[in-house]
Design brief:
Layout lengths: L14 H6 L3 H32 L1 H6 L18 E12 L10 E9 H8 L12 E7 L15 E6 L5 H17 L10 E7 L6 E6 L5 H15 L8 E4 H6 L9 E2 L1
Antiparallel strand pairs: 1-2, 1-3, 3-5, 4-6, 4-7, 5-6, 7-8
Length: 260
């Protein structure tokens, strides 16, 4: 993060300034008072610069994890590193272009602060137009079945009714993102590749992708923990579909390999 600006030292008072004050003792007192007031003003200005930097996503995303050391009196704002580096992708359906040409990398981040800078400065999922997707994946994994780390895996799929878009969608998506970057699936967190949200006219969908569909223990653990984190009722059933099945059939026809 950026460092607060250190107050610039005030220039030494000239003899003329001291003489105009009446006497040397009174002049020194006045100069010290002026100097202290100036330092307080500059310190306040430095704090404002720090606050403004937190609100500027482009500045925050470009900052290094640790600022260079400028001396023991300099204060630093420590960042909180994540266990993995993540990439946010955006997809907007344009039938005149190839599918892959509609997929765009937005940004990458690996600290808690950079995540919030990103999230606070993008459109909420509920505000996206139909046919758009967000995808958050571990850096190096592209949000497509063909990626070598995805093709043997599958996804836990949460389907939402149209009326849930403005009441629950943003909350459920944010909980999904926080669960991912927090690596909250315990020893099975390495199995998680990423998550996708699909905005569709018939109903929106949120899915958590894993890398190995045949790892039953890991897949079921992820599904149960994810369902609990979203606060879904026990009556709500979510299913896990292997990418191999989804790729050869429409989503409505693909069978669930597991359910929780």
């Amino acid at each position: 993060m950026s460092e607060q600006l250190a107050p610039a030292p005030a220039p030494a008072p000239s003899s003329e300034l001291l003489q105009s004050a009446g006497d040397a003792e009174g002049g020194n007192k006045n100069w010290r008072k002026d100097k202290e007031e100036k330092e307080e003003e500059e310190a306040a200005a430095g704090a404002l610069v720090g606050e403004e930097a937190l609100c500027a996503p482009t500045a925050l995303l470009s900052l290094s994890r640790k600022a260079p050391d400028q001396g023991p009196t300099e204060s630093k704002l420590e960042l909180h590193p994540l266990l993995s580096r993540w990439a946010l992708w955006f997809f907007k359906n344009d039938r005149s272009r190839a599918w892959q040409d509609n997929l765009h990398l937005v940004t990458k981040f690996d600290t808690v602060e950079d995540f919030w800078a990103m999230y606070s400065n993008i459109q909420l999922a509920s505000k996206l137009s139909s046919g758009c997707d967000y995808a958050l994946f571990k850096d190096g994994i592209e949000p497509m079945w063909e990626d070598s780390r995805n093709k043997r895996g599958g996804r836990w799929l949460v389907s939402l009714a149209k009326q849930q878009r403005h009441s629950e969608l943003d909350h459920l998506w944010l909980e999904t993102l926080l669960f991912l970057i927090g690596e909250s699936f315990e020893e099975h967190s390495w199995e998680v590749c990423g998550a996708v949200i699909n905005i569709r006219a018939k109903g929106d969908k949120i899915a958590v992708w894993t890398r190995e569909a045949e790892n039953q223990a890991g897949v079921l653990h992820i599904g149960r923990v994810y369902k609990e984190r979203l606060g879904l009722s026990s009556k709500t059933i979510i299913g896990y579909q292997a990418h191999a099945d989804t790729a050869t059939k429409s989503n409505s026809l693909a069978k669930n390999k597991f359910v929780v």
